[in-house]
Amino acid sequence: MNKYQATIEELILPAGIHLNGTEAFDIQVYDDRFYNHVLRYGSLGLGESYMNGWWDCLALDHFLFQLLNIDIEKQISKSLKVRWQTLKAYLFNMQTIAKSVSVAHEHYDLGNDLFEAMLDKHMMYSCGYWEKAKTLDEAQEDKLELICRKLKLTQGMEVLDIGCGWGGFAQYASEKYQVKVTGVTISSQQAEMARHRCYGLSVDILLQDYRLLTGYYDRIVSIGMFEHVGYKNYRTYMQLVKNCLKDDGIFLLHCIGGNENNINTDAWINKYIFPGGMIPSVEQLGKSIDQLLILQDWHNFGLYYDRTLMEWLNRFRASWGNLKYSYSERFYRMWEYYLSLSAASFRARKNHLWQIILTKPSFSQLYQSVR
């Protein structure tokens, strides 16, 4: 065993993991370049070496969960490349309109075939609600119903959906609650499918950045979009919500939240999955709404995201026989690693899923929470 192998073994041993061990969560190393790459680049190197096929693991999600539990990343010095990523996030707005459109093209425009194979019938790319659900379809429909009840929708209301995705919420709310929905996305493929799904309904789908929105709405909802806003734009986002919300309106924010005040995301996620993405903390959200909006309810069901992601992973793997003609084997390993890492982060309680209810100071009712 060389010094690099010995160092890696020493780092992972507190997590109960062994190199080339016999447990399902032990990793099998096939290329010695793995060791130096991980020690040099940390989480970026670990993910890249998996994509390269330099190592494998039968229980990838459990292996990553074990590492997150011991904060392995903090024990490996970050490369200059990773430090530059943090400095850029501090100095510059990494989520300008132009950059946001570029991210949407890189991730959400990968191909609707991929997301149709992985997601539920409503095409919800966010955490399901598993309190009573037995299937992914049920969990996502229960989530949609929970959101509608928290928004206290009634017939004829005008609803703004910031980051409408493939139109799942717009379709559900319009059909069941007879509300008019304006959805906004910066993904052309999402907009195309959303318009098709909502054809004939009282739904308008706009292909534009949220910062260009105008109008006045009874309700505003944002499901799984705030992670792309960036800390330099949090206040701008909340100011826009306040400007567009009627005096007795209700805003529901459904987003991933973190434990720390970070200004960027994991280096591997940033490079390969969500460039410029950022998970807000309680403190950062608090500052963004200070003297703008009133907190009415805060609901955390982050453990449900673990199950949701594993359902997506299983469906992705099961559909690979058809998808492999459009995507490479390296993409398969990248996507498998992304879903496994994300599930592990919620399982380890590093990330959470928050549904937050906010109103304007002029809100005149007593808001009663819904679970």
TrEMBL record:
CDD domains: AdoMet_MTases (cd02440). InterPro entries: CFA/CMAS (IPR050723), CMAS (IPR003333), SAM-dependent_MTases_sf (IPR029063). The keyword Secreted does not apply. Signal peptide: none annotated. One of its GO terms (biological process) is lipid biosynthetic process. Coiled coil: none annotated. It comes from the Bacteria. Keywords: Lipid metabolism, Methyltransferase, S-adenosyl-L-methionine, Transferase. This is Cyclopropane-fatty-acyl-phospholipid synthase. It comes from Pedobacter ginsengisoli. The lineage of its organism: Bacteria, Pseudomonadati, Bacteroidota, Sphingobacteriia, Sphingobacteriales.
